[in-house]
């Protein structure tokens, strides 16, 4: 780093971590040739989950939207369980419930019967059909199957009621990618199926947030409101996954909010589409640009000062509106917080893990804090991850040489961290809990999934205000871990 050390309140930097070691005494060193995930035929402690989850997440963000999983019950149950653990909300997800007969004869009958039951019992407005490994390997002709399911529906409930349900196919074979790609594919599938024509300018800006939490989406809406921009947020999970508990409760349960099918149709008429996570949502933005000339602005997630600046600048340019004073004040408060805490964060060695877009945006922010990234692990293989990191390093004038894992597993990440002589902090999701415990260092939780703490899904790390929350988490973790309690009174 270009910074030189500043002793903090008389405690030299290398003496801050008192009687703490970078791994527990029980640690037995592993054979070096088995550590890189590319050298093994087995994944140990995966950093990702399966592709249909991303498509189910997207569908849950639609008004009266229900995912239908064309696969076995296990492909559905795990995801419902994950959503419930993370969001503490019920998740209605239907399944074709494949058994041995479907594996042999295909899942056509399961789909037709399943769609019929789902519509008759739950009356959804949109169904996202998420395929799975098994249905893709069987080679189900999904287009023909969906046509047959629609014909059956018309017979049973009448043409008008049947045609009021939009059925969207999202191909999500999990062997071809992770939940991140599942979301990305869903972004394209929904706009391609529903936004079929332009009807005239609506002067709105499309936002595809990616795998962000309800609190983050609310913060993005706050920024839009203050900019005076009307937006269409695709896959708006802010209400479905953080619903108020208010009577009367209806049965079957219908979560409030979500993006309507009408709004998705209107996306073809917007000024531009801003995809806030290049790996999760870019496909939808690019499709609208190619098909209708709706400009696509694909940037890093607006975390930290520069990340949020880029977002606000893009919004201002697209809408032709100036940045209002109150947002400049929010920015100023984040800059002030960075200045107030720089002596705690500078030169601290940090490891970041999670989905590629989270790792990229958080890395950019920790460099703003003067921290030194030593290991960066993206959950899903990406063609652009390494290049984007390089750009971020150049922008932050960072000359270090961190380990970069592009889609490997957490075993590799953990073993590398254990060999470091010093590491101050891990930033990542709940899958890093055991690693942080083993290394006896703090974990700052960001990204998906966070299932071992409450409230993370409700708050933001995006925007200037979200940056202050994340900064406070990082600084307080460092203070709690590294400073003797009797010295923190002097800080
Ligand atoms: S990996 Fe494939 S078979 Fe396993 S749960 Fe995911 S979609 Fe289903």
In terms of DSSP E residues, the strand content is: 5-15%
| Shape assignment | globular
- Second-tier CATH architecture of the largest domain: 3-Layer(aba) Sandwich
Number of strand elements: 13
What is the alpha-carbon Rg in Å? Answer: 24 Å
Output the keywords:
491 residues, alpha/beta, Rossmann fold, 3 domains, 5-stranded parallel beta sheet, 4-stranded parallel beta sheet, 12% strand, binds iron/sulfur cluster
Overview of the molecule:
By secondary structure, the chain is an alpha/beta fold. It folds into three domains: 13-46 and 329-488, Rossmann fold, CATH 3.40.50.1980; 51-194, Rossmann fold (3-Layer(aba) Sandwich); 205-325, Nitrogenase molybdenum iron protein domain (Rossmann fold, 3-Layer(aba) Sandwich). The protein is 45% helix and 12% strand. The chain contains 19 helices and 13 strands. The chain has helices at residues 51-60, 73-87, 100-105, 108-122, 133-138, 142-157, 159-163, 179-194, 214-227, 261-266, 282-292, 304-319, 325-345, 356-368, 385-395, 410-418, 433-439, 463-482, 485-488, and strands spanning 65-70, 94-95, 126-131, 166-170, 205-208, 231-233, 272-275, 295-298, 349-354, 372-378, 403-406, 425-428, 443-445. Strands 11-10-9-12-13 form a five-stranded parallel β-sheet, with helices on both faces. The longest helix has 21 residues, at 325-345. The model has no long low-confidence stretch (mean pLDDT 93). Iron/sulfur cluster (SF4) binds next to helix 2 and helix 5.
